[in-house]
TrEMBL record:
A cellular-component GO term for this protein: membrane
Protein name, per record: CLUMA_CG008011, isoform A
Keyword Transmembrane: yes
Bilayer topology: Single-pass type I membrane protein
Length: 209
């Protein structure tokens, strides 16, 4: 009964950890990118496979929002890649098709399987090195997955606090700007009334009080 309970909990936690396996068609002389947010110091590994096409070349490139290249390879067909994120950022994996001008290109099927963080751990090797029993290995997976979920929630809470602080600061600035604008309008209206009064008095259209 205890083992069944552990398996149920492990299956529930796995719902929060997605292995990103994607398959799509890459049109000739086009580029398609996959983007994802990643925490700092996170290991990312993946594998890819591209269908063959005569006289067509596909390159891949991994970069961040500052256009720093973390991994790159030309003329690929299948293989693996890995990199470690330096800071929290949005990273993108781009596949680019190259077809000569005198060749009529055809779509190529691209398969990508990306794992990050706790997903990249080899639990078979950990079990052999630490001589863990199957139940102990499942508990180790549960512990790692729980830590990953807690870290994700902590990051989400931190970002929510930063967004709330930004919203409050923006609201205060808008309020002060609105008050300043109203004061300027009131000052301008007062100046216009006084100016027109002096003008009409000078033209003897109205009598001064």
């Amino acid at each position: 009964m205890k083992n069944e309970w552990i398996i149920v909990v492990f299956s529930f936690i796995c719902l929060f950890v997605n292995v990103r396996a994607i398959r799509f068609n890459l049109q000739p002389n086009t580029q398609k990118c996959l983007r994802d947010e990643m925490n700092a110091n996170m290991l990312v590994v993946g594998e890819y496979e591209i269908s063959a096409a005569s006289n067509q070349i596909v390159d891949y490139e991994i970069r961040d929002t500052k256009q720093h290249i973390l991994s790159k390879k030309d003329d690929i067909s299948h293989g693996k890649f890995s990199f470690t994120s330096e800071v929290f950022d949005v990273y993108e994996l781009c596949f680019k098709s190259k077809v000569p001008a005198n060749v009529r290109g055809m779509p190529q099927e691209v398969y990508v399987n990306v794992k990050k963080g706790v997903e990249t751990k080899s639990y078979e090797g950990i079990a052999e090195a630490a001589k863990l029993k199957p139940l102990e290995l499942e508990l180790k997976k549960l512990e790692d997955l729980s830590d990953a979920i807690v870290q994700d929630f902590a990051l989400m809470r931190k970002r929510e606090e930063e967004m709330r602080d930004t919203n409050e600061s923006t609201n205060n600035r808008v309020l002060f700007f609105s008050i300043f604008g109203m004061c300027c309008l009131l000052g301008l209206a007062t100046w216009q009334v006084l100016y027109l009064r002096r003008f009409f008095i000078a033209k003897k259209l109205i009598q001064p009080n």
